[in-house]
Amino acid sequence: MNQAITQKNLLSLSLAIFCLLFGAGNLIYPLAMGRSAGNLTPFGMIGFFITAIFLPLAGLVGMILFDGNYRSFFYRLGTFAGSFLISLSMLIIGPVVVIPRCVTLAYTMVAPFIPIAFLRQITPFSSFIFSCLFLSLAAALAYRKSRVVTVLGNIIAPMLLGSTILIIGKGIISAKTAIVSSLPALTLFKTGFMMGYQTLDLLGTIFFASIIISILKQMSSIKDNVNTLAITGLKAGLIGLSLLACVYIGMGFLGAFHSHDCLNVDPGELFRLISFSLLQANGAAIISITVFLACLSTVVGLSPVVADYIKMALFNNRINYLSALIITLLLSIPLSTVGLSYVLMIAGGPIVYILYPTLIVLTLCNIAYKMYGFSYVKFPVAITTFIAIATYICSF
Q1: What is the three-class DSSP state of 396?
Q2: Rounded to the nearest 10 degrees, what angle do helices 157-173 and 3-21 cross at?
Q3: How confident is the model over 20-37, as pLDDT tens digits?
Q4: Residue that wins the pLDDT comparison between 268 and 210
Q5: Please, what is the Cα angle at 390 between 76 and 32, to 5 degrees?
Q6: Which of 344, 349, 347, 45 is nearest to 188 (CA)?
Q7: Contacts 24+ apart (CB under 8 A), 84-88
């Protein structure tokens, strides 16, 4: 395999990683952070980057060190604790949070352009139909796991990048004054830190990495070279996350300079309103389609992971992959119809304050174990979980 093809594969993987992670939360939270921080957005962005860029990168590094085997990654806590965390994580990246969040944001953006007026008036009915159609399309695209990276990296990602550059560029050209924030810089840093938490990208990276590494192993020139495999995966992650970081900066800018009339608007509505304001109806329709594709790409990337788990762990391989995929997407329909605000509320509760700290410490301990022989994992994770639970209870 020559160098040109290798570079092409690297670019495709990088765009696939960017496309997978650039879903609903990655649009909502940097905009909301920019609105909150206003002229002090850089302080909030620093906190946002720590949890929305560096944590996913740590997850990717950890999974590369574990050869993409998330069971080995979690089972260092013991079979029971590891299985429990895997099951909980699958619920979060699957039918409870991430997939419904993507479906509901896509519906929020596309609903104004639905031509049948009476469907828009009967909100539960229209959202149910939209969810079924959206998830059916996701099933069709995820039917062949080997083509997931190709679909994301070669088709959806260029469209997503192009339209994102369009709206951010328009926002920069038409920017006047930013919202003036009266909050201290440290408070804004904490706000950005917590909003970056809620993207849940560490979870997505850990489980999507298994697909990335599997695709890498199919490349004949590197499948037997562990070091090259690791370096290639890390390069792809760095490029994909760098693109994501640029998008975060642009979205934070939009929130800071174009949210003056949207201070009390639900975060899920913010991007749609800013898009309409900057690009008017025709331009906003293009952006809405792009957001639809962004959300679709996340579902296409994560649903095969959840389907594989259902197939192997729950049914002990007694069903095929397609059946497991259909089960995964059917289970996602109920929460996909309740509205974006409700799904965001679920994501912002115990998941953020209890599970995420536990997962962060597990990731760091596993990296230290593989790189430096640091053997402790159960005690640090147990202490972190206990503190997180106590802190969360005391917050009420």
Answers
A1: coil
A2: 60
A3: 788 767 888 899 999 999
A4: 210
A5: 90
A6: 45
A7: 85/355, 85/358, 85/359, 85/362, 86/309, 86/313, 87/313, 88/355
Q: What confidence tens digit (pLDDT) does each residue in 318-362 have?
A: 999 999 999 999 999 988 887 766 766 766 667 767 888 899 999
Q: Which of 94-98, 265-269, 301-305 has the lowest mean pLDDT?
A: 265-269
CA 321 to chain centroid: 23
Cβ–Cβ < 8 Å for 346, 352: no
Q: How many CB atoms lie within 10 A of CB 79?
A: 10
| 44-57 per-position pLDDT tens digit | 999 999 999 999 99
Other CB atoms within 10 A of residue 24 CB? 32
Q: What are the distances in angstroms from CA 182 to CA 36, 37, 69, 189?
A: 10, 9, 47, 13
Q: Which two tokens stand for residue 351?
A: 């998941």
Strands (E), 146-285: none
The pLDDT tens digits for 340-352 are 667 667 666 677 6
Instruction: Write down the pTM of the prediction.
Output: 0.83
Query: CATH homologous superfamily of domain 3-342?
Result: Amino acid/polyamine transporter I (1.20.1740.10)
b/e per residue 183-206 (b: at least 16 CB within 10 A):
eeeebbbebbbbbbbbbbbbbbbb
Q: Torsion angle, CA of 169/170/171/177, rounded to 10 degrees? A: 110
Domain ranges within the chain, ordered by starting residue: 3-342, 349-396
Q: Which of 293, 274, 292 is nearest to 283 (CA)?
A: 274
- CA 136 to chain centroid, in Å, comes to 20
Q: Give the integer Cα–Cα distance in Å for 170 and 342.
A: 31
Query: Dihedral sign, CA of 257, 262, 268, 272?
Result: negative
Query: Per-residue pLDDT tens for 67-81?
Result: 888 999 999 999 999
